Amino acid sequence: MDIRQPIHSEHARTLDTEGLRRQFLVEDLFQPDRATLTYSQIDRIIVGGIMPVTQPVTFSAELGKHTGTDYFLQRRELGLINIGGAARVFVDDTQYEIGPREALYIGQGAKIVEFKSVDGAHPAKLYFNCAPAHTAYPTRKVTLAEASPETLGAPETSNRRTIYKFLVPDVLPTCQLLMGMTQLEPGSLWNTMPCHQHDRRMEVYFYFDMKADAVVFHMLGEPTQTRHLVVRNEQAVISPSWSIHSGVGTQAYTFIWGMVGENQVFKDMDHVPMTTLR
Ligand SMILES: O=C[C@H](O)[C@@H](O)CC(=O)C(=O)O
Ligand SMILES: [Zn+2]
């Protein structure tokens, strides 16, 4: 488990490229036959990836040591979106078929969780966010069609994109986790500009669908103290509540966003006027 401490905005201002990457960037999310986990002490979100190739993957009993519980999800909920080949997920006594671009919400208290690829030659890639939870809401699969798609932006501003809201209160109840996927149209490069903050929630962006030589310049920092990270395919960025989160790619890309914190109101954003940015 990679542990990331919370970070004050005044500290973040002083960092160079390597320092910013160490604090905010999550790399190597998908490793064969194991789960990778990055634990941020900001709202205690865990960001990770699971890629079963030759054998099933489970959450090891040792994870309970990190969470101080008998088993990993005893006091946590988990949301995942599959960006790879078809997956089969076992949650206690139930089996779920999670196809490409489908999501699964696993409610608090799930004891035995196992992840398999249907075909190891086209392995599943399960990107997940996991957060502390206070009650057990039902485990449920959510398809792309159920994710209430919303298309925003325009070709003139290079930000035409569709937001699929998978885990939001309109679709299903969760304790605090919100998750969705935003897909850019070919030729569109910008996400989330004009940008925003939400003091009440932290957020994590995970970029994918990118060629090996493509990059996204991900913008972070306070609106008057912006910085950037060069992000490559299948890497994630942790965004504290005080930070903007927006990006521009060298080609179109897709990203998964996940939020935890005070409320679950997707539209509750503090929009940053373009004239404020520095
Ligand atoms: O708080 C909401 C999140 O930042 C994202 O949903 C924004 C996003 O997907 C986009 O504008 O493309
Ligand atoms: Zn946001």
Describe this structure in words.
Zn(2+) binds at residues 196, 198, 203, 245. This protein is mainly beta. The protein is built from three helices and 24 strands. Strands 1-3-4-11-6-9-12 form a seven-stranded mixed sheet, with no helix packed on it. It has a seven-stranded antiparallel sheet with strand order 2-21-18-23-15-14-13. The two termini are 35 Å apart. The model has no long low-confidence stretch (mean pLDDT 97). The site of 4-deoxy-L-threo-hex-5-ulosuronic acid has 10 residues, from β14 and β15. Residues 196, 198, 203, 245 line the site of zinc ion.
Concise account of the structure shown:
The chain has helices at 9-12, 17-24, 63-67; strands at residues 2-4, 25-26, 35-40, 46-50, 57-58, 76-82, 87-91, 94-98, 103-106, 113-117, 126-132, 140-142, 150-152, 161-167, 178-184, 190-191, 196-197, 201-208, 216-222, 225-231, 235-239, 246-249, 254-261, 270-271. The chain is mostly beta strands and 278 residues long.
Q: Note the quaternary state here.
A: single chain
Computed over alpha carbons, the radius of gyration is 18 Å
Distinct ligands: 4-deoxy-L-threo-hex-5-ulosuronic acid, zinc ion
Helix content: under 10%
**Uncertain segments:** none
Mean pLDDT, rounded to whole units?
Answer: 97
SSE class: mainly beta
Assigned CATH class:
Mainly Beta
What general form does the structure show?
globular
CATH homologous superfamily heading: Jelly Rolls
What is the number of E strands?
A: 24
- Tell me about the largest β-sheet: 7 strands, mixed
**Second-tier CATH architecture:** Sandwich
In terms of DSSP E residues, the strand content is: 35-45%
Number of alpha- plus pi-helical segments = 3
What spatial order of strands do you see in the largest sheet?
1-3-4-11-6-9-12
* Count of structural domains: 1
Distance between the termini: 35 Å
- H/E topology pattern: EHHEEEEHEEEEEEEEEEEEEEEEEEE
**CATH topology, which one?**
Jelly Rolls
